Amino acid sequence: MENWILYVLYNVLVSLIIVLLGKYKNEKRTNYLHENRNPDYNPLVSVVIPTWNEEEVIENTIKTVMKSSYGKIEVIVIDDNSTDMTYEIAKKLEKDYDNLVVVKKQGVRGKPQSINEAMKIAKGEIILFLDADARIPENYISSHIFCFSNPNVDMIFTNFESYNFRFRPVFIVQEIYFNFVKAIFYSNLFVRMIFMGNGLFFRRKLIEKLLPIDPQTLVDDFSMATKLSKMKVKEYYSTYPYIEIQYALNFKDLWKQHKRWYVGGFREMFKKYKEGNKGYLFLYLFVGFIVLLPVLSLIFDILFGLHTFTFVSALLFGIYALISVSSFDSRKMGLFSLFYAILYTPVMMGFEFLVLLVSLILGPFNKVKKWHRVERDRI
């Protein structure tokens, strides 16, 4: 019992240090970006918006981008042959905006091929990728474009918040998950090049080195990240101004969304392994080991009389504390935000571990190319 308490105290302390270090690194990179920018830098920016069955949100997204305080932009909407009115709605807006181009895609379905085809049209020196449900403040583009006046900056991925957050379990779980990701992974404390492909800026000369993106990948952002990591590109995360996105409305959609991320990620690992990078096989096996660690530790205890389960349970409690503390955000859940983070962290962990376990099994063998689009919120 005493050992368990010591393990817990140690892990909680380490968790606090990791959270603070992650947040510090994020703010340090953001400050570097915005302190070394020139507001006289005015390149053409191509805003690329891939769409598929987005009739509920596409008009609002286009109009939001067009309200940007940065005037030197072109907006390219590339529609993946939607079966609803997405294309017609966007095409109609071409009459209102001279800098809007709406085209239908020619190649296979999926966001990666949409990016490939959009880049054949884009003329900008800087490329911004947005999802069809995105909303940005008026200073979003200008604030980040001016950062590219620094020749050391070739890419920026930006912070995001939910504009449809409600005080319900599925939204709280996503809030905890993403706050954890930002503090631990976006800070690059443990891994390099983890980012979301929504609110992603590239200098043109860099994105052209990544093309074409594999049309069959389920995770275009992870596919790009692996290439960038190999190229040893310096990535920058900007915490402000942030993009606004939609959270999934129910656990069914959230399950399908996260399963695509994880299955797609594991498929990319095996692809890189087959190309000769054995490190990705190690990473895959390491993730599997972590997911199965509680079960393995219990088996070792039973077979060999070890105390691994005591250690692992304390370790998991430390991770639990890490996620809870990193998810403290009074803007969303008010004065009781830490209480709700602690309350819902086990739900989030159980959900994610289950999705990871299923994806771990399906990843190497899954050949499905279908993308799942979560239900859109009409707000």
TrEMBL record:
Transmembrane segments: 6-24, 279-300, 306-323, 335-362
A Pfam cross-reference name: Glycos_transf_2
Keyword Ubl conjugation (UniProt): no
Keywords from the named record: Glycosyltransferase, Membrane, Transferase, Transmembrane, Transmembrane helix
InterPro entries: Glyco_trans_2-like, Nucleotide-diphossugar_trans
Entry annotated with the keyword Cell division: no
Superkingdom of origin: Bacteria
Alphabetized Gene3D superfamilies for the sequence: Spore Coat Polysaccharide Biosynthesis Protein SpsA, Chain A
Glycosyltransferase 2-like domain sequence ranges: 46-210
PANTHER family listed in its UniProt record: POLY-BETA-1,6-N-ACETYL-D-GLUCOSAMINE SYNTHASE
Family per record: Belongs to the glycosyltransferase 2 family.
Protein name: Glycosyltransferase family 2 protein
Protein source organism: Thermosipho ferrireducens
